[in-house]
Amino acid sequence: MPHLRAIIFDFDGVVADSEPIHLAVFQRVLGELGFILSPEEYYAEYLGYDDKGCFLAFLTAHGQAPSTELIGELVARKARAYLDHIKQHLVIFPGVRELVRDAASRHRLAIASGALRNEIEYALECAGIRKEFEHITSAEDVRCGKPDPEPFAHALASLNRASRSGQDRLAPGDCLVIEDSIPGIRAAHAAGMKVLAVANTHTVQDLHEADALTLGNEHDAAEAAFDGKGRWIDPPADWGLPDAALESDQFWRVYQKCCQRMPERHALVFSMREVMDMSTEEICKKLEISRSNLHVILYRARLSLQSCLAKNWFGSKHA
Amino acid sequence: MHRLMYSCEQVSKLSSRAMEQPLGLFDRSMLKFHLMMCKGCSNFAIHIEFLHRASHKVPEALEKDEG
Lengths: 319, 67
Prior knowledge:
Helix content of chain B: over 70%
Number of domains of chain A: 3
Oligomer: heterodimer
Number of strands of chain B: 0
Shape of chain B: elongated
Strand content of chain B: under 5%
Largest interface: A-B, 38 and 33 residues
Number of strands of chain A: 6
Distance between the termini of chain A: 34 Å
Largest sheet of chain A: 6 strands, parallel
Order of helices and strands of chain A: EHHHHHEHEHEHEEHHHHH
Structural class of chain A: alpha/beta
Radius of gyration of chain B: 15 Å
């Protein structure tokens, strides 16, 4: 990236941990019409659409020909239910506030989202980061939502209208987009911008079209894997024939990122043992650790790598 | 009976330890018995075997990066 001057954030799934809430509210509104929307269908088919697009696509896929009035009514119903919900729960991802404040000191920031303006404004106000964003493009501002480039083109044009001089003008290549969905990545590329994808909602593998990838939020694997009685909270699933992954460059990038995410000492011990093939005696002597300590570290490293790869590579759709 | 049975957490630790050293007869039988009945733990055992194979094949470019 030669001259990064502006960052344009998607909102749902990047700034706000709101996808599960959107799903629940969509389910409620569609349920009132007698339709069932499964999480699998929502995450696979409708993520990245704005509300209008989602209702339209869902009803069309289910053999309906909804009128513009009906769609409008459903969008309004969903917006009311959504606002009710977020008034009770703060939905900003951990770390976003710090990242946004830090980035705002060096770059111009905007939002380009398919969410409604008051939903975005409300969540940003609550998190205390509203003023960091120079501009917000919301569902109301565009005719075509993502994967159409219009939301990003609109955000760029608005930033440029606010530019004080010709030198401040931004080209699409000066902007980095942060996205979590496939239509979002395509929209940003179509607008001529580079994309960093965050695997909050999809696996890294699903998001391979992006220019750069980062893993989503995760807790310490060892702490999160078992309940108080030593039972798996999320039992490891079948990975099929995992060795096929070894041929993929993308897999190795994920593997490396997962290793970097372990505590440094764990990664070192794991790499001495499994990559360099050193004997346990050698490692214990070199690092001056006990045998039982070595077992604990290797166990934690394996559990962490296993759960990171399960989440970011062997996602349920690829198993 | 249940006090004798290992939990999934204990079994996953045993699976990992077995990659460094042979287990005693008792632990070995308990592990085998649990893996026969528990899909989650038997997947975990397969996964860490895969990590072992995979880590032997880490591309050189990556290794330098990490070191």
